[in-house]
Write a structure and sequence with these properties.
109 residues, flat, single chain
């Protein structure tokens, strides 16, 4: 895999990760879980455009990666789109991370 293939793969992973954050499936860098389905829809469209514009110019490995990512995002998008606002609130409450209590350090004698 040449440098451009590696950069293209990195671009795909950036879009995928960002879309998964927009779906509320993974936390953002601040640790918060939020949904932005409009953004996810745009990201899916952007990745589909990349697939169309690069057709026949990508190694098979990258084509499979892009196809798999698009399928996963589309399925998750449909799933999230079908949820009622109440279900989304339930999910956020269930997934809220618990605070970790630090044990006090023992003093050496």
């Amino acid at each position: 895999m040449d440098k451009n293939d590696q950069l293209f793969m990195q671009l795909l992973y950036m879009f995928h990760t960002s879309a998964m954050q927009g779906l509320g499936k993974i936390a953002d860098p601040t640790g918060q879980v939020n949904r932005n389905l409009e953004y996810v829809s745009q990201t899916i469209d952007l990745m589909a455009m990349l697939k169309e514009k690069t057709k026949g110019n990508l190694p098979q490995e990258l084509e499979k990666l892009l196809d798999g990512m698009l399928s996963e995002l589309r399925l998750n998008y449909v799933d999230e789109k079908s949820k009622t606002p109440e279900k989304v609130k339930e999910k956020k409450v269930e997934e809220k991370p618990k605070a970790v209590k630090k044990k006090p350090k023992k003093k050496k004698k």
